[in-house]
Write a structure and sequence with these properties.
Blueprint lengths: L1 H12 L6 H20 L7 E4 L15 E4 L2 H10 L4 E4 L12 E7 L8 H11 E12 L4 H13 L16 H8 L3 E9 L6 E2 L2 E2 L2 H10 L1 H10 L6 E8 L4
Parallel strand pairs: 1-2, 1-4, 2-3, 4-5
Antiparallel strand pairs: 5-9, 6-9, 7-8
Length: about 240
């Protein structure tokens, strides 16, 4: 636990500028989160954002929200841009909130970085009110990125993680659904980002070459997210709490 926390404190201390491609990818992801909130058909009430290190997640609604992160550095950065929200340094596997407290929990690209993902899902259903909504995204093995990661791990004979994170357990759509079905009913699924990887770290195809091409094909990427949701780099699910444990 402390090892993971220390990693993210250090990770967020070093300010990294995203490439135009990474910025575009994150915008596509956040737009799906925003669509899931709007498509839910209910008025926004109490919303919890889990893992506010990605400041873009805090932009999915203009309403005041509650956000947590394991890293105090991430929260300090988030407060600078979204100071009107309420923040807590907290472990998502042990949420400091009462039962049935939130109407929405949004957890995007976080669950793959925890030791006990089932405990995290249990906590989400605990703090959600009756028929509350969980919106969750995970990296997907059944994608171009998943294939490249598997190949890299086969060649190097070691784990290859995003940003060298200590825990980075990607999912298949089937594995995520099995975990979710204990506490939730899946209402909507979506794939995110169907473009191939363009490199890693210092070894990236320059954005000025790739960006115009990706931008041109963005309508196709949007379409694939609906017709082939199981094959995007990220897999997004909107689901409803069905019971208490």
């Amino acid at each position: 636990m402390n090892k993971v926390k220390n990693f993210y404190d250090k990770f967020y201390t070093i300010q990294r500028r995203m490439t135009r491609i990474e910025e575009m990818k994150q915008d596509v992801r956040v737009n799906v989160l925003r669509e899931f909130l709007k498509g839910d058909g209910r008025r926004y009430k109490k919303i919890l954002i889990v893992g506010c290190g990605s400041e873009k997640d805090l932009s999915i609604t203009t309403k005041r929200i509650i956000a947590i992160d394991i890293s105090w550095v991430a929260i300090k950065i988030a407060k600078k841009q979204f100071g009107y929200n309420e923040y807590f340094v907290a472990d998502a596997c042990d949420l400091p909130f009462a039962n049935n407290f939130f109407d929405y929990v949004v957890c995007s690209e976080v669950i793959e970085h925890v030791v006990d993902s089932d405990k995290m899902l249990f906590e989400f259903q605990r703090v959600l009110c009756e028929k509350g909504t969980l919106i969750i995204t995970v990296p997907n093995w059944y994608s171009f990125y998943g294939m490249v990661r598997k190949l890299a791990e086969f060649i190097t004979r070691r784990s290859v993680t995003a940003g060298n994170q200590p825990i980075d357990n990607w999912y298949t759509p089937g594995k995520l659904k099995i975990q979710l079905n204990r506490y939730f009913r899946v209402e909507e699924i979506r794939g995110i980002w169907y473009y191939p990887p363009t490199g890693r770290g210092e070894y990236m195809v320059p954005s000025f070459i790739v960006y115009p091409i990706f931008k041109l094909f963005q309508p196709i990427d949007w379409f694939l997210g609906r017709v082939l949701p199981n094959n995007g780099h990220m897999y997004a699910v909107r689901c409803i709490k069905v019971r208490n444990e």
